[in-house]
Amino acid sequence: MYYDPIKKSLGEVFNRTPWLRRLFYHLLDLLLLRTWHVHRELRQWSKGRTDSALTILDAGSGYGQYTYWLSGLSRKWQILAVDVKDEQVADSNRFFRQIGRTNAQFAVQDLVLYQQPNSFDLALSVDVMEHILEDVEVFKNIHASLKDGGMLLISTPSDQGGSDVHSDDETSFIEEHVRDGYNIHEIQQKLRTAGFERIEARYSYGEPGQISWRLSMKYPILLLGKSKLFFLLLPLYYLVTFPFCLVLNWFDANTTHESGTGLIVKAWK
């Protein structure tokens, strides 16, 4: 299934007013399990840093929800959010101007080519690398763009059922993915090849998270892919499933998993 048309439709609905977009961001923060894991890591990274003038790269910013969240933690941080989609970048710049978030800027860039040496204290890559074939080139560019001691935080599907692939004869649930998921040792080796020396990786989306993902993402996306009329039923659907997803997300984000369909990876320059 192609996910981008559905994402575009959602964006058109929630981009109508700044209030709707803020609501959209808050709903994504609650509903998307990856956000629970990413926010947890970012809170840990930000301790003692909110009064410092730091620079952050949101590498593959998408809707811009992570830039929004980070820009609210400290007005002293300067955030550059890059994405390949012109329309999405323009929408995000317009929204951030409307709400007065002057410490964030969006730009059109290709991560395979983009490099800004020794510029960033933190780089963020959330559900991006599964879309890019030339992943080592991207890791090299981000490594070069980080300052000494800077950290790269990655959220991406694993090879333990990521992209809803559980056997060799299955294909990714999301057509835009160029890989079904990373082996935990593979991604660490690729990061070492790119120049990173200290690397930490752990699984996300254990059993609770996999159930939550099916309820909150897979089934609604499948239905939206069949008919946009399902948009009218989404509020009722989530009214029933949302409380269960919140509990499952909490358990997944606060427990350790021996395996999982997602990976959270941190690498330092």
Automatic annotation (TrEMBL):
GO molecular-function terms, A-Z: methyltransferase activity
One of the GO BP terms on file: methylation
Gene3D superfamilies on file: Vaccinia Virus protein VP39 (3.40.50.150)
Domain Methyltransferase: 51-167
TM spans (from-to): 229-251
Keyword Transmembrane helix: yes
Top-level taxon of origin: Bacteria
Keywords: Membrane, Methyltransferase, Transferase, Transmembrane, Transmembrane helix
CDD domains xrefs: AdoMet_MTases
Entry protein name: Class I SAM-dependent methyltransferase
Organism: Hymenobacter metallilatus
Organism taxonomic ancestry: Bacteria, Pseudomonadati, Bacteroidota, Cytophagia, Cytophagales
